[in-house]
Amino acid sequence: VYIIYNLYEVMMTSNRQSAASMTKASMEKKKQQYIIICSFFLVLLSCCSLSNGFIIAQRHDQMEVLSNNNCGTKRVTPVSRTSSLLYAGFGSSSTSKNKKKNKKTKKSSLLSLEKTSTKKSSEAVKEEPKGPLLDRFGLPIPTIDDIFPPPTEKCIPMTPEDETNLGEADLNEILKDYLQVDSSLFKKNGIENEQEMRVRLLHKSPPVLAIDNFFTDTECEEYKNMIEPKDTSSDSSLFQMNSATFSPLSQSKRTSTTWYCHYSQVSTLLAKARKLFQRKIDIKQIEEPQIVRYRNGEEFSWHYDEVPASSLVNGGQRIATLLVYLNTIEDGRGGGTVFRDLKSNEDTMLTMKPKMGSALLFFPAKKDGTPDERTLHKGEMMNEYVSYTKNRKKRNSRNKNESNIKGKNSDDNEPKMIAQIWIHERNYDAKVPVGNSQDDAKELVAQKEKELGLDD
């Protein structure tokens, strides 16, 4: 309209002389002609807009049907937007009878449409394939396999035949690329002495070993009591740290509590570790000894024990992990040490359950310092003990010898306690507690080895 009006003004301006000579009647006639032209263009514009809206609505319906078919869902073709517009009054008759008919038709059609669309949409939701879980940014949530990819090197589990047929020579062959242990402790025909240390093979490659009777009950109680020193002002007190990890950016979650020990405080642990490794390791290769406590709800999620490249300057790579369980954990409470990629005889994830005095030995890296990616493991979450009537009766009927398995001061919900050390390729410089040094423990370890008959 604006363009036509300006055209009219231009025409009138350019013909001022002729317009001045026009009569009043001819001027009015000229204006009416322009008004008719403007009205014609307005009607044409309205028709074009309305038809364009109908075309867009129809195409939208077609695209919606196509998208539903692509998703594998069957859906009744909905009523087009053009019909909805007609229901709303566009193009309807102005008579009262037709209006009533249209109202009735509108109600029934919309109700049926709503029911049909609701039913079909619910079916579409059920049949819609599930994709990966997304975070709030629309990105896939990483899984354990994304963070810790499955190993490329083959894992070889133990078989029932291996448990009866393997001997000392076989154990030496299995450990040829790793830190060697005293094969004389590997007894396949049982234990002559109930208190004698015994090595059992849990997994062939990578090698995982269990050591029975590594600690006596008295030694376990002694180490558990170390976390509550009587003289807290002494320089020999333990250094406590919560959730100790190499980096705050670690992908692993650790909620346990760790106490770092002076080497002079754990002479029994060091002496027996040297015996296990044929006294071929030097105390200076051992990282700060630790005592770790896991209360109910606490865990150490999937992780490797290998040292990150930034920390290899101090002692090189960890080539052995030794965990000593200081108490027994009831079945059903968790607390086991689980290896994700290693299988047991029952074709389940290899799990070492805490038993008082037993120890677990595995190798985060080979003796040349090459990390073994197959040793991914975790400390299971500790759960609260659930007491049932039958279990209560069983516990009341236990004799004294059975109760001594858990220790004198144990209870059903006691925390899991372990003592642990790591052995490095080379000499390791201790950092905590302040003033801690392997040299302070050399004489004490020698005395303990002689006392326990481990020096022969």
Number of helices: 13
**What is the C-alpha radius of gyration, as a whole number of Å?**
41 Å
SSE topology string: HHHHHHEHHEEHEEHEEEEEEEHHEH
Helix content: 25-40%
Largest sheet: 9 strands, antiparallel
In percent, how much strand structure appears in the residues?
5-15%
Per the principal axes of the C-alpha atoms, what is the gross shape?
elongated
- Which spans have pLDDT < 50 for at least 5 consecutive residues? 65-95, 103-111, 388-395, 397-410
Q: Can you count the beta strands?
A: 13
Rounded mean pLDDT score: 78
Strand order of the largest sheet: 1-2-3-11-8-13-6-5-4
Structural class, from secondary structure content? Answer: alpha+beta
Distance between the termini: 113 Å
Structure, explained:
By secondary structure, the protein is of the alpha+beta class. The protein has helices at 2-14, 16-21, 24-70, 81-87, 96-127, 144-147, 160-165, 168-174, 217-224, 267-276, 389-396, 400-403, 442-451; strands at 156-157, 198-205, 208-212, 239-242, 257-260, 290-294, 300-303, 318-325, 337-343, 349-352, 359-362, 377-379, 416-424. The protein has a 9-stranded antiparallel β-sheet, with helices on one face. Strands 7-12-9-10 form a 4-stranded antiparallel β-sheet, with no helix packed on it. Strand 2 and strand 3 form a beta hairpin. The model is unreliable at 65-95, 103-111, 388-395 and 397-410 (pLDDT under 50).
